[in-house]
Design goal:
There is one protein chain. With 173 residues, this protein is of the alpha+beta class. The protein has a domain of 108 residues: Roll (Nuclear Transport Factor 2, Chain: A), CATH 3.10.450.50. Helix content is 45%, strand content 31%. It is built from 5 helices and 6 strands, in the order H-H-E-E-H-E-E-E-E-H-H.
């Protein structure tokens, strides 16, 4: 019998991944953080300049992310040993959003590394103008929050315009 999160012979890493999926799908930052190693590192899909480290930063990040990303529904789980990939569909505002998460677990079956991959680009820029300022406000950095929103808005507008008007022109005829 294949080892899946629903089989009788569930492994400790698979059980952690299943708890993670449940917590994320329900927007429960506390339950999600309970799945993490004290050494957790999350890599942003947008930049190498920004990494979330430690459970406290992850809690703040997840709390903000769960207000920006709605209707999370996982559709894919694959992995074995201490490496898993999960994927879900959701919405960021009115934008459809899909994210894949590469999860690596430590010897105690706690998630210690998360690498995010997201699509499509308009949803990523919508997330950027929502999540970045919200995280800055949580840190009490209102000026930075305003700067992030103002500087991200033109990128979001250009990406949205390109996605709606320019990219369709490149379809094969």
């Amino acid at each position: 019998m294949a080892d899946t999160p629903h089989s009788a012979a569930i492994t400790a890493p698979a059980a952690t991944v299943e708890r993670w999926r449940e917590a994320v799908q329900h927007g429960d930052a506390d339950a999600a953080v309970a799945c993490l190693s004290p050494d957790i590192v999350l890599s942003s899909p947008l930049t190498d300049q920004y990494r979330i480290q430690g459970p406290h930063q992850m809690h703040d990040f997840l709390t903000s992310a769960f207000t920006a990303v709605k209707g999370i529904r996982f559709h894919t789980l694959t992995g074995q040993g201490n490496s898993y990939a999960v994927a879900y569909r959701a919405k960021v505002g009115s934008q459809p959003f899909e994210e894949a998460q590469l999860l690596r677990l430590d010897e105690q079956a706690r998630i210690n590394e998360i690498t995010l991959f997201g699509r499509p680009m308009p949803a990523l820029t919508a997330l950027m103008i929502t999540l970045g300022p919200q995280l800055a406000r949580q840190q009490g950095r209102r000026g930075l929050a305003a700067l992030l929103r103002i500087s991200s808005a033109p990128v979001h507008s250009m990406v949205g315009f390109g996605d709606r008007r320019i990219v369709p022109l490149t379809r094969p005829v």
